[in-house]
Amino acid sequence: MFQNTLEYAKKQDAVDPLASFRNKFYIPQDGAGNELVYLCGNSLGLQPKLTSEYIREELDDWAELGVEGHNQGRHPWLPYHEFLTENMARIVGAKPLEVVIMNTLTTNLHLMMVSFYQPTSTKYKIVVESDAFPSDKYAVESQLRFHGIDPKEGLILWKPRKGEELCRFEDLEEIMKEYGEQIALLMIGSTNYYTGQSFPLKDISTLGHKYHCKVGFDLAHGAGNIQPDLHDSGADFAVWCTYKYLNGGPGSLGGCFVHERHAENKKFNRFTGWWGHNKKTRFNMRQEFDPIPGAEGWQLSNPPILSMAAIRASLDTFAEADFQRLRKKSVKLTGYLEFLLDEMKHDAIRVITPRNPEERGCQLSIQVKDADKNLHTLLTKAGVISDWREPDVIRVAPAPLYNSFEDVFKFSEKLRRILK
Ligand SMILES: Cc1ncc(COP(=O)(O)O)c(C=O)c1O
Questions:
Q1: Is 0.90 surpassed by the pTM of this model?
Q2: Which among 33, 74, 244, 309 is least buried, having the fewest CB atoms inside 10 angstroms?
Q3: pLDDT tens track for 40-57
């Protein structure tokens, strides 16, 4: 149904109901003022034009009100994080009670493991996918060591089979059959950063719970990309960042999900701070820690408002676009990219991301035989912002909020010319 012409790509943009959202973002340009083909939202999302306005508002309130901005600001700083919750919860398929924006991804992962990884002498192992993002692996290994467990003994890797890149669910089932009684936690990336494979969150949660394990997900590459339906998945917890598909700006705050069934449990082992304490008595200062029910109870500190303002701007843009519509466009846009790559009929190219749209987000990971980083350099020189992963993979991620069918077409043309 797709066609390999610029005219066709332009036609798709003309009938795309979300096309106007591109104008709500700053698209990076080359030195001559031409828009670059930016396919790197899996690394850093682009800046919404609303962002500076929202940050400006907080700077002005700070200038005019000083400390009174906590209560008298146009968006008072005391409850500021609450202004983000509903939109964030909708994107990850959670209830507002289950979601909070705080800290950064790896910090949140540690906080969650303090609560949800409670090893005993017989049930102490953690399962991660073998090509998990290094920070996740470091965090998990350090948690094992913190409990006096050698990672060599405590870590189980869910690996692709020999000669394959993707993990098979049935292999995780085998791991659980063999070691389930010894496993305390499954900590899996929702969408793998390298292959772009999205895992079946509900199936993994159900499997883990069958063996009385806790189950957590890293949604760094899932939030704002796939529809993770976190509440229905039954996962115990999830963490993510907001600087990729959520366009919150470099190094912006992380997100955290704790399932509703844990909301009222005040006995949790957790690391605590005053921002997680009962809002009614927080400023009495002399009280025993009394956690806010739900994910908010894991907050530590009063949050950086300027970063939160940027995230609020982005989430408002998402809400206007509507996430269901975005996902629908995303499936088509990435499908078009896949079609154009297939059309190249080039022996050196192989997409390692799953073909099934249900098993991926917008990213395609393209393995290029015998290529080195020079290929990426040539693409960059040709005006494409993409991402290179050693040894031979280009990751491209058309984000449905600001990328167009024309972007995708231009990318494929530039790649085809370079490979020639
Ligand atoms: C899958 C995944 N996990 C963890 C991280 C680390 O995130 P942070 O530096 O915000 O802790 C990243 C960063 O890109 C990531 O892609």
A1: yes
A2: 33
A3: 999 999 999 999 999 999
